What we know:
Elements: E1 11-12, E2 15-16, H1 35-48, H2 54-65, H3 76-79, H4 85-99, H5 104-108, E3 110-113, E4 116-119, H6 129-144, E5 156-160, H7 166-174, E6 179-184, H8 187-199, E7 206-210, E8 228-233, H9 248-253, H10 267-279, E9 280-290, H11 294-303, E10 310-316, E11 323-324, E12 328-330, E13 336-344, E14 346-351
Parallel strand pairs: 5-6, 5-8, 6-7, 8-9, 9-13, 10-13, 12-14
Antiparallel strand pairs: 1-2, 3-4, 10-14, 11-13, 12-13, 13-14
EC number: 2.1.1.297
Protein name: peptide chain release factor N(5)-glutamine methyltransferase
Enzyme class: transferase
Amino acid sequence: MLRALLSGLGWRGGIWGCTFSSQQPHLPPARLLNATELVSHWTVVFEKRGIPEARESSEYIVAHVLGAKTFQSLRPGLWTQPLTPGQLQYVQELSSYRLQRMPVQYILGEWDFQGLSLKMAPPVFIPRPETEELVEWVLEEVTQGPHVVGAQGGPLILEVGCGSGAISLSLLSKLPQSRVIAVDKGEAAICLAHENAQRLRLQDRIRIIPFDVTLEGSWAHLLPWGPVDLVVSNPPYVFHRDMEKLAPEILSYEDPLALDGGEEGMDIITHILALAPRLLKDSGSIFLEVDSKHPELVGSWLQSQPDLSLNLVAVRRDFCGRLERPGKTQSPGRFPRMHWVPNTGMNKCRRS
């Protein structure tokens, strides 16, 4: 699964508005005209240039040009059917972007998350596969916890840092009676989340609001829509010292504010934790996604903030065996639980 992100380039009709050389040094021989041969050709080219997931990249690009999401989903007859000159040129063009280390998600302009096809556009964060596990955990808790019921029969959910809307929209699609308040400080994210909500026809159950969790008193703007049953977030959590170690796809294209969590990766996490008790119902919960080092750091921080009445009660690891970014919090009475999902595991807390 490709997980690279991207930022700062303009979108033009499905192809990014960055420039690349008019020379076409990697055109395949004229006889390489079908999909299978093109995938093999571009896999070799990508491998020679050190492009990660070379075969997957070439398969996604060729499939996209032929109107499919994956190469495997193409009709078998298309694997050996000659491409038109226009299709060959389109493959060449998209592959040229990949040679510049542009992530496939942004080259294609869309990506699937929890069965939803979402538009992707820079500099908005691309949702990772691990975050799908966070959504699944939230769904488990909602369906197994009868106390998580809002005034309209389903939970009211607040997502902090909604990005493309992946988490919010997938929860809305799986919980038909739920409602969501989705906030983000980035204008690009707000616009993209609106567009994805419209595309999926979920706009009537979601409010998408510009919001900076780090601003003092900003939480008051959310009070008219609260209190909420759940707070969910996949915040910036990368340790600042690790930012320079990120892949070129990230360093070259992505907004660092979507990733950099400060010295200990906790800058935004602590703001969310401080915000949540003001907006959560007494039986509310918090789900976060974090780094593997964060459960211990979060536990220590919460001990230093007894007035928040939050307590870490659960941690889960992601499918790679790592903790997921902090994940969830819930609270019976004045004691909500917090489930944490670090990017190497998930955690769970409660509020007292």
